[in-house]
Amino acid sequence: MQKFEQFIGSFSFDERLAKSDIMGSIAHTKMLVKTDIISASDGKKIVSGLMSILKDLEKGWKIPKEEDVHYAVEKELIRRIGAIGGKMHTARSRNDQVTTDLRIYLKQEIENVENIINDFQKTLVEKAAENIDVIMPGFTHLQPAQPVLAAHHLLAYVWMMQRDKERLSDCYKRTDVLPLGSAALAGTSFKIDRQYTAKLLNFKSISENSLDAVSDRDFAIEFVFCMSLIALHMTRFCEEIILWMNPEFGYITVADKFTSGSSIMPQKRNPDCAEVIRGKSGRIFGDLTALLAIVKSLPLAYNRDLQEDKPPVFDALDNVKMCLEVINEMVVSLKFVKERALKSTQKGFIAATELADYLARKNIPFRLAHGLVKDIVLYCKKNSKTLNDLSIEEYNKFSPAFKKDIFEYLNAKNIVDMKTSYGGTSKKSVMRQIENIKRNLK
């Protein structure tokens, strides 16, 4: 029997909802008093008992284990104030109670994650401002493409995280709906005041359909999807950190505490923290898949399958928060190797696009200019030369439109400075970005 109870129980993972459960029960009890469903004296005893449990929890006391946290709180309340504690469950079911608890919990956690993201954005903005003069290769297909400011590259992740916060804020709207009062599935015959309960619990609205309310986990799925995208964005940044740390690139260094040595190769420092964040993303994506599979094909209304919604939600949440905190600290320690990054812009004929644009300004159709520059690059490869190595006479063999000022367009700093379009990589444009994002940060 004990094995069976352990199998169907959820206390091991829903224990963290205890405070949310107590908050919901206090509000529900106050509503029962307001609507004369229970007496004021009974309500006062129940609320007082619940508050005593809450205070003990805040001091670190652990609530005795039961089948689930909801029954554990109720049983402890009855132990403290007597059978009168059982009146707390009037006009509700564990079905509407559990989803209410999860919503209360996630509303707070959404705000917590937004704040952590905000801190990470601030770190990225500060790091961008520190490195406003660092020039590095920008890549497409992981091939050298055009020079960009390192600050511009860092700010790309700030905007990704800004969208992540916006998605969380949008998720909050659908989480901010109170299901309490839906009871098991059909509502209740007691004359309850759901709007009053919503006001006490700071919910913006109440659910419209009791069947939907007790079985809806869309908000939880959406939340884990938000966690998955945050994780995805971190993996992209971690992959670049791993590449940039590689001696073949050598653009950055990070503090040793975010790396580890090899057990056999004494010269190596491995980017372990970045790799672990990359690995945890797969786990978080798995949480989303698990939650989708749990809810898939469930008939209305509540089914015990929904008990398994919390482990993937909590796992995704915990890992995203931990990864955000680690990546933030890692970026604080990140230092660009300015000379190495700039030197890399001399590889891969990274100024080729500027040559094509130069010819286009001379009234040569861009497609023709593109072909001419492609021929110049092939000529350089054949003769083991760079674009800077060519003389003006060699350039004129391809087009008389080339003048001596062409060499100004081969300088990485000049190339970056010319990218003045809104959202571009020029210093002026990047400084505008920094000011814009600062206005968006809390």
Give a short overview:
62% of the residues lie in helices and 6% in strands. The chain is mainly α.
Write out key terms for the chains shown.
two-stranded parallel sheet; 442 residues; 8 strands; two-stranded antiparallel sheet
Descriptive report:
The mean pLDDT is 96. It contains 18 helices and eight strands. The longest helix has 37 residues, at 94-130. The protein has helices spanning 2-8, 11-14, 18-34, 40-58, 69-81, 94-130, 150-175, 194-200, 210-215, 218-245, 272-295, 310-333, 338-344, 352-361, 366-382, 392-398, 412-417, 427-440; strands spanning 135-140, 143-149, 177-178, 205-206, 252-253, 260-261, 269-270, 335-336. The protein has 442 residues and is mainly α. Helix 11 packs antiparallel against helix 12.
Please mark out the parts with pLDDT under 50 across 5 or more consecutive residues, or reply none. none
Tally the helices.
Answer: 18
In percent, how much strand structure appears in the residues? 5-15%
Computed over alpha carbons, the radius of gyration is 30 Å
Major sheet: size, sense and barrel closure?
2 strands, antiparallel
Write out the strand line-up for the largest beta sheet, numbering strands in chain order.
1-2
Q: How would you describe the shape? A: elongated
Spell out the blueprint of helices and strands:
Blueprint: H1 2-8, H2 11-14, H3 18-34, H4 40-58, H5 69-81, H6 94-130, E1 135-140, E2 143-149, H7 150-175, E3 177-178, H8 194-200, E4 205-206, H9 210-215, H10 218-245, E5 252-253, E6 260-261, E7 269-270, H11 272-295, H12 310-333, E8 335-336, H13 338-344, H14 352-361, H15 366-382, H16 392-398, H17 412-417, H18 427-440
Parallel strand pairs: 3-4
Antiparallel strand pairs: 1-2, 5-8, 6-7
